[in-house]
Each structure stands twice: as C-alpha cells, then as structure tokens.
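Encode chain A's predicted structure.
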Amino acid sequence: MADRPKSFNLSAEVHAYLVEHGSAPDPIARELIEETAGLGAIAIMQIAPEQGAFMTLLARLMGARRAIEIGTFTGYSALCLARGLPADGQLICCDVSEEWTRVGLPYWERAGVADRIDLRIAPALETLAALARAGEDGFDLAFVDADKQNYRPYCEALAALVRPGGLILVDNVLWGGAVVDPSNTDENTEAIRAFNHWAAREERFEGVMLPISDGLSLLRVR
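Encoded structure for chain A:
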C-alpha cells in the first residue's frame, strides 16, 4: 500500500498484515490511493486504509445519516465515510482546494456515493457558521483532518452542530509521536498538544484517543 506505514509504531510487516485481515480497500479505493500517491510527498495527508475501514464501520454501527468532514484532500476519507451512510445519507465535505478534491470526484461516482456527498469549497469555519445560521444541526458524525491551528475552533463549532451522542473524530492527534517530544516546538506540534489538552478537559465531550494511524480521537458530544 505504501513504502512506510502511517499507523503508529507498527512495522511495515504488521501494517500489511492488519490491512489484509480487515476490510481492505476495494479496487476503486485502491486506485484512488494509488493516484494520490502519484502526487508525491503530499500524499502523506491521505488517511491510512485501516483508518478508512474503521470510519466506514463506525458510521454504519452508529446508524449515521448526516456527517461533516473538515479536510477532504483527494477524497479517500470522504469515500470511506459516504460508504458508511445509507443511500439517502448526506456527507458535507469542507475543503479549500478544488485541485485536490477534483481527484476524488470520479471515484465517488464510480463507487455510487457521489449523490451522498455535498462538497463545499470554502474555509471550513465559514461553512460551519453558515450551517449554524441555517439551523442545520443534528449531525451524527464529524471528521476533522485539516489545518492543525484550527482544530479547537472546528470542534467548538461542531459541538453545536453534532447531536448529543454523536461523534467528532479528530485525526493526527499523536503527530508521529512528536506530541511527547519536548524538544519539538514547531507550530503544528504545539497546536496539536494544545488541542489535545483542551479536548481531554472539555466538559461537552467524553473521549478516547486511539493509536490508529497517526492517532485518532473520538469525542462523544454529551
């Protein structure tokens, strides 16, 4: 799948084994993964296949019908989430790049989920504010995988849009282990540390941090 696994502290051999023994990407998803890999180093922004399978299964287990994604990149995570929704479900995807999101469009069509996906090209905080003004709350599930400095503002906004008992998934919360390296003080690492500290103490959520891929926090809205 990749030269080096994204999953946290897994060898390449263990990573390949767990992907093979779970719901591995089907041919459509695999082609999207491969096309994204062709973009070069930026492809690291794509979620790992085991995380995609987990998100599909989680959406199905929740019976999610309405979901929001913050950060779509080339559309693999959106494909996984949309496949976990029913045929009349809705996934609102927020991203600022037409170039990257355009990669995923034909794959959504081929997978038969394009009619479930509402792609909105605009800063995500603007889209979330517009949803709030329109009274469009009651979302079941949200996924955050975008600029790290805005993780807290995204989740502050989503806390009002996701229904009680719904979930907010937040990606990259272990940041390759950098969160526990005191010598690492770059902007993204500090932003993730601050978010993790806030989320763990935020009374509106109950949460768990899982070592899936680069770390995935599940925040249940109380």
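The longest helix spans residues 187-201.
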